[in-house]
Automatic annotation (TrEMBL):
Entry's transmembrane regions: none
InterPro entries reported in the protein's UniProt record: GAF-like_dom_sf, HTH_MetabolicPath_Reg, Tscrpt_reg_IclR_C, Tscrpt_reg_IclR_N, WH-like_DNA-bd_sf, WH_DNA-bd_sf
Protein's UniProt name: IclR family transcriptional regulator
Recorded GO MF terms: DNA binding; DNA-binding transcription factor activity
Species whose genome carries this gene: Cryobacterium suzukii
Domain IclR-ED: 69-253
HTH iclR-type domain residues: 6-68
Keywords for the protein's UniProt record, in alphabetical order: DNA-binding, Transcription, Transcription regulation
One GO-annotated biological process of the protein: negative regulation of DNA-templated transcription
Top-rank lineage group of the source organism: Bacteria
Length: 263
């Protein structure tokens, strides 16, 4: 990942992202340790974020949690749906080329949320309708996103075995199994899920990275297992990767436009 040219902004966003993954407010010391930031920096940033309403301070508990302004950002995203608008035509084109269903997802805590779902003609219905949430470690798209996260962020998301839900008794059940799986994703350049969400169906996914190298979204193609042999799934991943690269280019263009407009 490229080093941020605005360290304070990067650290503030890391604090907000970390708080969003927690089940409740956390101490500032825990934030500093989890993110590898100086305590003084964390306290300074928390003071600004609290003043702006993005963080709420609970003085009796000496803990910090997300504030109302952070919630307003999430609802604003839901209203504007920028990724959906950018990604929907690309997902539709991918479905037309491959003849298999495809979708666009984002990471939210330990889940993925489906923003776009395009079902190919004469293909079975899937559980991945728009707005559906699924455990990221069980889905191809989620694994593609998790494999692109820094190790510290991954540890924060999966601190212990209790964080690992299962479906049909399949999927990684602890941090060791997850790290082994994600190492394979990093080596291959794509993620695979084979019958772990829906029996008889498989998925191949690739992460979409923004200008800073952060996984902004993931694109996945889902298909009946017998339609694409295992030996051919790397070829399918290349096609998905081409679409992911194009969406990444459009996201970077949007970010550049927003940055230019704010000067």
């Amino acid at each position: 990942m490229t080093r941020s040219k605005v360290p304070a902004a990067d650290s503030a966003l890391r604090i907000l992202s970390h708080l969003a993954t927690q089940r409740g407010p956390v101490p500032a010391v825990t934030l500093a340790t989890s993110l590898g930031l100086p305590r003084s920096t964390v306290y300074q940033l928390l003071a600004v974020l609290t003043e702006r309403g993005f963080v709420v301070h609970l003085p009796e508990e000496r803990r910090y949690g997300l504030g109302v302004a952070a919630f307003e950002l999430s609802t604003g995203f839901s209203r504007q749906e920028p990724l959906s608008h950018l990604g929907r035509p690309l997902i539709a084109q991918l479905v037309d080329r491959l003849g298999e269903s495809a979708h666009l997802v984002v990471l939210h805590g330990r889940d993925v949320i489906y923003l776009v779902e395009e079902r190919a003609p004469r293909r079975p219905s899937l559980v991945t309708d728009v707005g559906v949430r699924l455990p990221s470690h069980l889905t191809a798209s989620g694994r593609a996103l998790l494999a692109a996260l820094p190790a510290a962020q991954l540890r924060a998301l999966y601190p212990n075995a209790a964080a690992f839900s299962t479906r049909n008794g399949q999927g990684p059940k602890n941090s060791t199994e997850l790290r082994r799986l994600l190492a394979r994703v990093q080596t291959d350049g794509f993620a695979l899920e084979d019958g772990e969400i829906t029996a008889g169906m498989a998925s191949v996914a690739v992460a979409v990275r923004d200008h800073a190298g952060w996984p902004a979204a993931a694109i996945a193609v889902t298909f009946p297992q017998e339609n694409i042999p295992e030996a051919d799934r790397s070829v399918l991943a290349e096609r998905v990767g081409d679409t992911a690269a194009e969406l990444a280019r459009r996201i970077r263009g949007m970010q550049s436009s927003l940055a230019g407009g704010s000067r």
